[in-house]
Design goal:
The structure is a homodimer of 352-residue chains. Chain A has 2 domains: 116 residues, D-serine dehydratase-like domain (Lyase, Ornithine Decarboxylase, Chain A, domain 1); 192 residues, Alanine racemase (TIM Barrel), CATH 3.20.20.10. In chain A, 29% of the residues lie in helices and 26% in strands. Chain A is built from 10 helices and 17 strands. In chain A, strands 1, 10, 11, 12, 13, 14, 15, 16 and 17 form a 9-stranded mixed β-sheet that branches. In chain A, strands 2-9-8-7-6-5-4-3 form an 8-stranded parallel β-sheet. In chain A, helix 3 runs parallel beside helix 4. The longest helix of chain A is centred in the N-terminal third of the chain and has 17 residues. Chain A is elongated, with a radius of gyration of 22 Å. At the A-B interface, helix 5, strand 10 and helix 9 of A face helix 5, strand 10 and helix 9 of B.
């Protein structure tokens, strides 16, 4: 099948670019003695998770149990869920996962730890728990050192849990701060007799500064495999590294300077980027996607030397690629103009 | 099943509220002699489409062929697709649909009309085509009256097509302009010997001003069935009319004044509303959802008399409900604390 035979809107993944992005990151990690544990949220595909592990990753990261279940079904054997998992239903599924893969989870509160401690009670196969600390991103995470030590002690005291270490979802562009905070946290834990075995940092924007965070033992990049407008704006590579595009058709050219594509927020998602517009048209670099409704992208082509014609197909690099993967049933793996394979997005829509 | 037994995140639909929203709109339409043709993009459920028709709607509106196919499978017999449908693959599916339901479509260009004319050639069962005109929303639509007449003539001249009328996706809050533009367009078409049989207007924000658009013969509201923060901000009813909420769990309370929910942009979508924040917490009206990442909603609860506890479940009215329906496999129909039924979102993710 050729790309010309694919109906729109559709996801195209340039596998050579994705492979190059994976190889570059793994080479950087190898050079700096850093362990990668890629976040699968971006691709949601077992094939890429397996590829990441084959290239040298220690395991993978999934944000939701449902994603981890899909990956475990696909023979991924080491999975970290950096999330507070609460409630009987989820803890039951977590226990089932723990029985079949090397699983680790996160906690940032005594409530979460108490839930783990109540469900996991086998000292012969304890559940490894990392404490999430806030290094400046102001999302989740413990920010007081005494609270951190108290939580580590609670984990250590639970027969069915093991205190594995600390993790953070770091603020962008502040590697020195992040490193200092991780070092400080590790220091007090060590002094308390609970040295962290794993110190997990994350994020694609600062992936190629990950080695500056010398206190971390692993890094969890996600978006680096495909990249997107947001990552490029944050300084990760170039638009020519972006491996995923949304193939769309020009459905209207109502007035000079304006065209409309059949890829709206249901295909490109409404996430804002730190650059104007809702996507980058590969064939029309001067075009600006000025607004999205669910099934329409309105594109200002007044600065383009020629406007795309009605019926013409264009490729759009989205602002935020992870949410785009979540909106499609399948991706088309392409090599030049050829579609090599159509792959279901197996971990799509796994909300719980 | 009780709501307490539903794992999070999940969609809850208060059927009594949805029914009240439908009944109110139909009563308004009946009072003003207006025909409703509801847009199913908001609910994507055959059961609601059937209910809308049972209450008096002339038929339904679907934006994509894939949605129309689902609705046709569910015995909906009159479907309007207000979209320029291009390309051999989609035209083939369109022809299959046309063979089994009363179908009508839109066009705003000679290219689209030529595509219809080439595929549909049976004068005994012509395809009804409405011309989209731009009444100020600056998305799709013809804006020149001579172009409009020329396009109507092209439709009329095609043996397998019938010129059905005009349609618009109106700008919000400008019913007088919209009415004038529809009247002007109808006038030139009548003068050209091609009077429009249907004049289709749309939108939920101005639903209860639809009767002011006296030149329209039908109205296509979508979001009115569930409503959302955006619609309420635009003046459609109150938050207490919102029928769909996202049930979420508080997973973190890292510092006083901040909690984190397990419903991020994968559950609530990143669409902005003309009011601050990414959702309204029903139980905590003073809370502000300050940011979303894919699996986290960060909520400022510093103005709330009490903060929700870790593990507590809250209901969130989203900014834009249509895109939320698209993110979940099922909805839970609720009556008070009871889940009456779990219904698959049959027309979810139909992009083409």
């Amino acid at each position: 099948m050729k790309i010309a035979d694919v109906d729109t809107p559709a996801i195209l993944v340039d596998t050579a670019r994705a492979e190059a992005n994976l190889a570059r990151a793994q080479a950087y990690a190898d050079t700096h003695g850093l362990t990668l544990r890629p976040h699968i949220k971006t691709h949601k595909l077992p094939m890429w998770a397996a590829r990441q592990v084959a290239l040298g990753a220690a395991g993978i990261t999934c944000q939701k149990i449902g994603e981890a279940e899909v990956m475990a079904d696909a023979s991924i054997t080491d999975i970290f869920i950096p999330y507070n998992i609460l409630g009987a239903a989820k803890l039951e599924r977590l226990a089932a996962l723990h029985a079949r893969v090397a699983l680790s989870v996160a906690a940032d509160s005594a409530v979460t730890v108490a839930g783990y401690a109540a469900r996991f009670d086998d000292p012969a196969r304890p559940l490894p728990v990392l404490i999430e600390i806030d290094t400046g991103a102001k999302r989740c995470g413990v920010s007081s050192l005494p609270d951190l030590v108290e939580l580590a002690r609670a984990i250590d005291a639970a027969p069915g849990l093991v205190f594995e270490g600390i993790m953070t979802y770091p603020p962008r562009g502040r590697t020195a701060d992040v490193n200092a905070k991780l070092g400080e946290a590790a220091g007090v834990l060590k002094a308390a007799g609970l040295p962290p075995r794993r110190i997990s940092n994350g994020g694609s924007p600062d992936l190629y500064h990950a080695a500056e965070v010398t206190n971390a033992t692993e890094h969890r990049p996600g978006t680096y495999i495909y990249s997107d407008r947001m990552q490029v704006a944050f300084g990760l590579g170039h638009l020519s590294d972006c491996a995923l595009t949304v193939l769309a058709t020009v459905v209207s050219h109502p007035v000079p300077g304006r065209v409309v594509l059949d890829a709206g927020s249901k295909a490109l998602a409404a996430d804002a980027a730190p650059v104007p517009g809702h996507g980058y048209l590969v064939e029309y670099p001067d075009a600006i996607v000025t607004s999205l409704s669910e099934e329409h992208a309105v594109v200002d082509v007044s600065d383009c030397p020629t406007a795309p014609a009605i019926g013409e197909r264009v490729r759009v690099i989205p602002n935020h690629v992870c949410v785009v993967s979540n909106l499609f049933e399948v991706v088309h793996l392409v090599d030049g103009d050829t579609v090599k394979e159509v792959v279901p997005v197996a971990a799509r829509g796994r909300l719980g």
